[in-house]
Structure prediction request, 318 residues.
Amino acid sequence: MSTLVLDENSSFGEWAFLWSRRKIIGKNYKYRQSIQSLLKHSGPICETPICKVSFIEIQDILLKLSERNPNTNKPSSYKLLKNVRQTIAAVFNFAINCCDGLYRNPTDIVEVPIGAGTTERQSITLEQQTMIVNTPHRARLSAMIMITCGLRLGELMALQWSDIDFSKRIIKVDRSAHNVNGNVLKVKNGTKNGKKRRVPIPKVLFDDLMSEYLGNSAKTKFVITKSDGISMHTRSSWDKMWETYIRTLGFTFTAHQLRHTYASMLYRSGVDVKSASELLGHSKVEITMNIYTHLMEETRIISIDKYDDFLENFFNIE
Prediction:
């Protein structure tokens, strides 16, 4: 196999290919796919000699991406934009280290657009929550667990009947599922950040869980299964089920929005931020505090609106 020899006049795409080929050695399928997905967003500069790529071109990529992600036709999240910028920067740093004729990294003065992705983590509305509770579907139990207990999708996929203590009304969140080859999921001990937690089961969920347990626990160890009632979901089987669920309900939402809705309900029911952080399994209480602060601002706006209405009515004396 011939060795690819590059210099400052080689294209950004050629350098990105060489960087990614070394970056993904020994990594799993999910990581490799993530790198390739991030690099796709650098398309507008792929054919440009790396020495001629300007910070304006990279900034333009992020600005356009912040307005519309071509994969979703929605504004991109701040996290995605930051990851795209970091990936492009990593390619430049790699090229600078390998090439004597290249000494500047234009991403040093590129900024991630402020306010990007601010709508991605919204809670679903009360009307939509009611529809989830009242609409029969095979995915309903999954949605109910996420919205009333705050489980992440990977934690839900890995949830087993042995994790549920019906006598104490507690779910033990000790494991999660992750991709093995892009479709097959594998259960591993520990959660996203390694923190195990215990989550109380509310009354609105308890009867549904008990009914499912009495009907299916003898057939499978998993709480949420494929249509055969036995096997753990694959990525594709979950997506197919969720798609039919969305069509049945008539509105679109994500698993993460259900978790964010859970956080919102904790706030509105008066749960303190430290307890909420433990229930959500956040790595730092500051993450929960950011959510609570945003919700307090929303509440403050509603209160001011009510005050404005009061003053208008009060002074409107005929």
User: Anything to note?
Assistant: The longest helix spans residues 285-315.
